[in-house]
Amino acid sequence: MPESNAEKSILQELWDNMFAKSWPMWVGGILLAVGNICLFIVLKPWGASGGILNWGQNIFNSLGIISFGSEESPLPGTGAHPYSVLCFLMLLGSFAAALMSKEFALRFAPAGEIIKGLIGGLLMGVGAIIGKSCTIGGFFSGFPALSLGAVIFTIGLAIGVWFALRYLLWEMEKFPNISMGKTATFCSAGTKGKSIQPWLGVILLIVAVVIAANYSGGGNKVLASYVLISLFFGFVCQRSRFCLVRALREPFMTGESAPAIGVMAGILVGMFGFAVIKYMNVGTPTEMIWVWPHFWLPAIIGGVIFGLGMTVAGGCTVGSIWRAGEGHIKLWASIIGMVIAMPITAKFIAPPFYEALPASMKSQAYLPQMVGSYPGAVAIFLVIILLWYVFVKWNERTGRFSAI
Hints:
Elements: H1 10-19, H2 25-42, H3 49-63, H4 82-100, E1 106-108, H5 111-130, H6 136-140, H7 148-174, E2 184-186, H8 197-217, H9 221-240, H10 244-253, H11 258-280, E3 293-296, H12 297-313, H13 317-326, H14 329-355, E4 362-364, H15 367-371, H16 374-398
Antiparallel strand pairs: 1-2, 3-4
Helix pairs in contact: 2-9, 2-11, 3-4, 3-14, 4-8, 4-9, 4-13, 5-12, 5-14, 7-10, 7-12, 8-9, 9-13, 10-11, 11-16, 13-14
């Protein structure tokens, strides 16, 4: 029989609160926003596509397939690029959290699902480079950065999600065998008896702290901070099931509003911190940081392509990373797709695309500059978030735009 709270030690009760069940997504959103503010103070806000791009570029270089970097501007190694380190430590953090909660297992989906993961990753790779953003850099961090391009990119994401969801429902009806087939699970902790998984998770956390200490001892406090904050990101994402795909998909699928509200909570907290940092110009000049030159055409095109990909794959860049940390092979396929597509798009597709656009279609749109004040810009974003909240709650009650 399970122990009652009275029979448990205080530390055991704390452990169970942390790892026995998932945290509410709004808790994850707020914690991630606090980490995002810290990351901005250290260097720049949270993003993930730059790290995956660096992985891919280094892999292509090592294989001698495509050359990236030059003598004048050498390509940073994966251990020297802040966002490459961030992605790796997010993966490590989610892996540790999954082990400590005994939720890790190597999960092999049917072959059709793994192929969809790869295709979704390829699409996300193209969309992230064309749109100069992913769901984190262009949405979760883009809104707090007060970038109007982030709003356009998010609209593109929603359009892509809607079309991808219609396709998936059509596929389930017409070709159900694509998502059916053999599945396999290995290395799971099981539900009975003791497991070594929590101890392995603790060891991984210690390894991450050693990595941070190594960077710090070498005089690189920025990367040391990135290691610890990124570890925190991966940990929180796994425990709270933080998912931007769900936030944009569920209103059109089940009508559930909780994922969207969790993201809104994080954006609101992040917006407060970002506005203070930018207004006070903390550190290096910060006003235009995370205000990408993608307003308006690249943002909408990249957002649509990325939204299609993340819905087909079942996870965005960050969602793919932390689910891969749990052992989902489909999301490993998604990461592989991004690793392949991002460098190729950055090398051969994005340059001629951007060169063909007039400046008016690829500008930096920083709302405080456009309206002439920070309070006015923040007020506009608050209205946008309020309208989003009203829509998802109304749709949850009425099911007007829900497919199920």
